[in-house]
Amino acid sequence: MVKIDNLSFAYPLKHVLKSVSFTLEEGKSIALLGRNGCGKSTLLKLMLALLSPDAGTITVNGKDLYAMKDRERASYIAYIPQYSADTFPSKVIDSVVMGKAASLSLFEKPSKKDYEEAERVLDYLGIENLKSRSTEKLSGGERQLVLIARALMQKAKILLLDEPTASLDYSNQIMVMETVNKLTKEGYSALFSTHNPEQALMYADSILILDDGVSEFVDNPESLLYSSRLSELYGRELYLSVIDTGSNRRIVCLPK
Amino acid sequence: MNKKKMNTSSLYIIPLAVGYAIVALASLSIGRYGVGISDIIKILLSRILPIESTWTMQAEAAILSIRLPRIIASTLVGGGLALSGLVMQQVFHNPMVSPDVLGTSSAAGFGAALAMVLALPSALISPIAFCFGLISIALVYLVASKVPNNHVLGLVLGGIMISSLFSSLLSFVKLMADPEDTLPSITYFLMGSLSGVGIDDIKKVGLLIILSSLMLYLLSWRISLLSLHDSESRSIGVNTKLLRSMVIIFTVLIVAASVSISGVIGWVGLVIPHITRMIMGCNTKKTIPSALLLGAIFLTIADTISRTIAFSEIPIGIITGLIGAPFFLYLIVREGRRSDG
Question: How close A10 gets to chain B, by Cα (Å)?
Fold first, then answer.
């Protein structure tokens, strides 16, 4: 469980986060919604201890996140970036096994067992066929799944995803979000940022809205159906509705 | 089964090792005084086995006193510079980076030139060049500490600044140098040469280059993690700042030690890492040993050319430049085609 309490952060010329508080429970997902520059990435950076807050605390299972060493933090929190640098591409299996870094000593290399585990993770995500492919030859969706596989190798139960479906085609967006959904059902906690309110309404258990530094935690996303909060957030009148397909309830969000 | 697989996965090194052995033997054989391969082998073995001498004293002197030290030096310097370039490219996420990126070569070159101008004993030139190489990295870290939020950017900016500073100081020292005597020596040193390298020089820096290379080899898997963005590598539990600093220190030790005995030899640290990745891919477990061997092969060939192609010896830096510059152009064209595709 991650507890964020009264977290504030400002860049030299801009106050980005003001007293943000929320809790990410085990097996739950939170979508981070907000306009460009509202502090979504900053919040993720704070949760990865890449930045230090001006005020407030982050605790993971009761432990102060900022008192942890990189290795310990990595055992709790995994990060799936929007984009991974590919200056020196590697084989998918080598990229996935990098998730073992925290559990290996400085001069230790991944063992055969670690590679077998990486293969199992790829198999679990349904991308075992990619294991020998170069990371530079992956599609956007495949790349995201490989990054998720690396996060799973890390054995951390909290996943932070920075716009995981940005610049993916519709089919890949669904594939990635359904994978995240599957993982939360199996006990992982996920916090993902997105620019797509439909995605937030469809896949998240709760929504954290960041608007001009102020946060608003929406425990029941469906409550947004009956308010103008999203219209206010994006500065456009939006039409939200529920479509019941029989087996699923889907929320659509369209501009009026 | 496990052992068998491990042995198979290490097979890539065999052609390179054989290639190196052939080049080294050829280099021992070629020269103004030609020596046959069988004589070379006998001369080398005679140092450890009781073999009756069937060769001339000149052949023995050419092999043991002149060519062998040069080949050991070209192996250490070539392998070391190629490895340094490969690792620096990984650290700075940039395949166009060379080992000089942090200004080590400029600083070591300045140190050597300063020692020459001050007419210090020749035995002090190498240690002073080496010390200035180390001073440069301390200064680069001082500059980088002023950019706390972007360590890599701080190091690059520091490197540019320190390199430029020592280049200016070097120009000043050259201006002060005696144009009849000292200036040609400085110029020759800066062009890079293995002609003056003896066993004593190798004893001074050999162990340092070997140990630093060994440390980089042992860190090879961790070095591959440095090619990730800092936010990614830190999130998987890597102390990037510490690891990067360790890798940079070992690299700087290699570069400073190399420059101190051979002068400034360009292009090896840029060209060989590219060739290595073209052959082996990007896995550091393979590229690190391969770059060492390919660098050693390249510089041994360049050194053999430099001492045999003309009546008087041509500085090796000229040979590596003549090979390296067109290859660099080829790389740019190739990259351009790839991005167009």
Answer: 14
